[in-house]
Amino acid sequence: MRITRTGGGRGRRAAALTTTALTASALLLTGCSDDGGSDEAADSNGKITLTVADYGQFGYKEAGLFEKYQELHPNITVKEEVAANEQDYYPKLLQQLNAGSGLGDVTAIEVGRITEIVTTQADKFTDLKDSINVGDWVPWKAKQATTKDGAVIGAGTDIGPMSLCYRKDLFEKAGLPTDREEVAKAVAGGWEDYIKLGEQYKKKAPAGTYFMDSASAMFNAVVSSSPEQYYNAEGEAIYKESASVKQGWDLAAEAAEKKLTQGLAQFQDPWKAALRKGSVATVVCPAWMSAQIATYSGDDYKGKWDIARSPGSTAANWGGSFLTVPKSGKHVKEAIELVKWLTAPEQQAAVFKATGIFPSNQKAYELPDVKNGKLPYFNNAPVGQLYAEEAKSIPEAVLGAKDATIKDTISREINNMEQRGTKPADAWESATEEIDKVIG
Description:
Blueprint: H1 24-29, E1 48-55, H2 65-72, E2 76-83, H3 86-99, E3 106-110, H4 111-120, H5 139-144, E4 155-156, E5 158-159, E6 162-167, H6 168-173, H7 180-186, H8 191-203, E7 210-212, H9 215-224, H10 243-257, H11 269-277, E8 280-286, H12 289-297, E9 305-309, E10 321-324, H13 332-342, H14 345-355, E11 358-359, H15 368-371, H16 383-392, H17 403-420, H18 424-439
């Protein structure tokens, strides 16, 4: 998942972090290397343009990184081509790969797609293993972009360690604990405890409010916190037998039956409206979600939201992307240098400060902009430390070629249980039929 770019731009982020400022010299220090020539002749003035194709919000513009890179490399202009959402971006990327043209010099790939690219399109991308410091990334991140013969076709940008965003004021009115440590204790046993907390909330819930926004979000968190998800190590789809999928589905069905959820498809207009009206008490919250909540909840709820550790002893990862360098690019060598610089710890820390998008580069976790990062909108939650701790407990999961398709299809059927009252058995049958048509 990659968040849709929200309005406002740099300087108007609703979920701004407060940290010790990253010095300009730190940004200048990393990845500043000799160009070493171009793969294709530059223009008559010796200048080249590097195109970065991505989707949603990667935070580079917001953090001023493209401008900074151009200052460091006066002969290079960086042009970002942004698709509003990944669902539109990915089919176009596949078309470009098949046609062998139209690709950016740097091309982003979402984590839910990376296995399909690694297994079917790897020969079209440059091996980065000798150019980037693979050991700096959380281990499972690097493996996601590594082929069977050891080529690394993508440099990790962010990850989405998952926590629990909750409304302190609504919890207080419902007689629930409000301190983030106490909330974490209340759900320490896992997602079953989260359901129990929801039942407690419902007993004294303020009128017109719901414990959670979406049971499908909880489903995704349950599955994502397990090493066994939709595929096995042999690349076979096992979602019908997967223990984590069964657990997530059963909990989602229970939440829908007990009316603990408002039944909103996340990121759609009704979901945004619910945040604006203040009718949602909890949201399953990967690192990038805070900006969404703050943007759509608005100033009326600043300080009323907080963030606690996710339920259970293992965290989930929802989201994260990679930067790749297509072999067909006009300036492959320069593109590799740009990717190396953008994914270095100092730049990932700058992105985190600007947007809340959490680094995959572990060396960034000790930098002040991450380590001391807090979110004033969320009652000064120490998100830098919180997400770094969550990242340590994220299991190494097997990813499959059609993970995103399976997850999205199941999520739609969970929404049908919530919104239309579809029986769980019927919803599951509908989901599996549709999935099997796609994956064979």
